[in-house]
Automatic annotation (TrEMBL):
EC number, as in UniProt: 6.3.2.4
Domain ATP-grasp, first and last residues per copy: 104-303
Annotated organism of origin: Jezberella montanilacus
Protein name (Swiss-Prot/TrEMBL): D-alanine--D-alanine ligase
Cofactor: binding comment: Binds 2 magnesium or manganese ions per subunit.
Pathway: Cell wall biogenesis; peptidoglycan biosynthesis
Length: 324
């Protein structure tokens, strides 16, 4: 048994709309770590309580949760309080990155190019968004992943239905300028100056529809790794991915998604701080392109696990009674 990591919890499942994908990721990661002699244990946060998590006495955890209550900073804050090292970004970076609107605001402040957008809280604001962004336009649930709550609107008659689809997940809907071109994703591993990018992947989905079904449950989507783009464009996208990663304060690992327009200009779309690790997932695909197996990738990510907010070993002295 690999004693380097101690007892490792692979946190998966959860209560988000991405629960099914998270279970697939968690099972894959746990099996891979065990193949490397790591004492890994699955822990479904959707079925088990915080008290049960504490009782497990994990030495570190691999977060294979996606979406709310796993990728949004809430779990990361809990693990900081418990002093349990964990993979991925800290509470603040996680909470910003899961919110596509806040992510865009940070990136724009950092001088990074992302499609124009508007925040929509009612159907009455849709026409104003169209005037600003034009059609086609994307409507998105800003705090969901796996393309849940993402709808492309091509004509005014589709606006209401698209808004209802996106707003069932979030009160605020992101209206985003549509960028025609190639869909590119870049994986990042590491923290600070040691962070590195893996080869970019181009995603070609049927009719450009890279939805939940085509992501995880069909084999019709095509992936090209490394992406068939010019070397200078690939290098530029990799540099932008690192800038986007650092601008949000991300650590450990993540995946940045781009649209490469018809003039070969890359537009940042979003960043995932706990990417999928299923049989269809993109980070393992990019790792394989540089000769890194799935189990090796899992171990490398696990090696980055740590607490991010101060020391977990501070001794808190009880407050003395004022009447003493």
């Amino acid at each position: 048994m690999n004693a380097q990591f101690g007892k490792v919890g692979v946190l998966c499942g959860g209560r988000s709309a991405e629960r099914e994908v998270s279970l697939m990721s968690g099972n894959g990661v746990c099996e891979a770590l065990r193949s490397k002699q790591v004492d890994a244990h699955l822990f479904d946060t959707g079925l088990h309580s915080i008290a049960e998590l504490i009782d497990q006495k994990f030495d570190r955890v691999f977060i294979a949760l996606h979406g709310r209550y796993g990728e949004d900073g809430t779990l990361q804050g809990l693990l900081e309080l418990l002093g349990v090292p964990y993979t991925g970004s800290g509470p603040m970076a996680s909470s910003i990155a899961i919110d596509k609107i806040m992510t865009k605001k940070v990136w724009l402040q950092a001088g990074l190019m992302t499609p124009g957008f508007a925040e929509i809280v009612s159907e009455d604001q849709l026409e104003k968004a169209v005037s600003k962004l034009g059609l086609p336009m994307m409507l998105k649930a800003p705090n969901e992943g796996s393309t849940l709550g993402v709808v492309k609107v091509t004509k005014p008659s589709e606006l209401s239905a698209a808004y209802r689809e996106a707003s069932q997940y979030d009160k605020v809907v992101l209206a985003e300028q549509f960028v025609k071109g190639k869909e590119i994703t870049v994986a990042i591993i590491g923290s600070g100056e040691q962070a590195k990018t893996l080869p970019p992947i181009q995603i070609v989905a049927p009719e450009g529809n890279y939805d939940y079904q085509n992501k995880y449950f069909t084999d019709v989507t095509q992936y090209f790794c490394p992406a068939p783009i010019a070397d200078n464009v690939s290098e530029h996208i990799g540099a932008l991915a690192l800038r986007a990663y650092h601008a949000l304060g991300c650590e450990g690992w993540a995946r940045a998604d781009f649209m490469l327009d018809e003039q070969d200009r890359p537009w940042l779309i979003e960043i995932n701080t706990a990417p999928g690790m299923t049989g269809h997932s993109l980070v393992p695909m990019a790792a394989k392109a540089v000769g890194m197996s799935y189990p090796e990738l899992c171990v490398e990510i696990l090696e980055t696990a740590r607490c991010k907010v101060g020391s977990p070993h501070v001794i808190v002295k009880p407050i003395q009674s004022m009447t003493a």
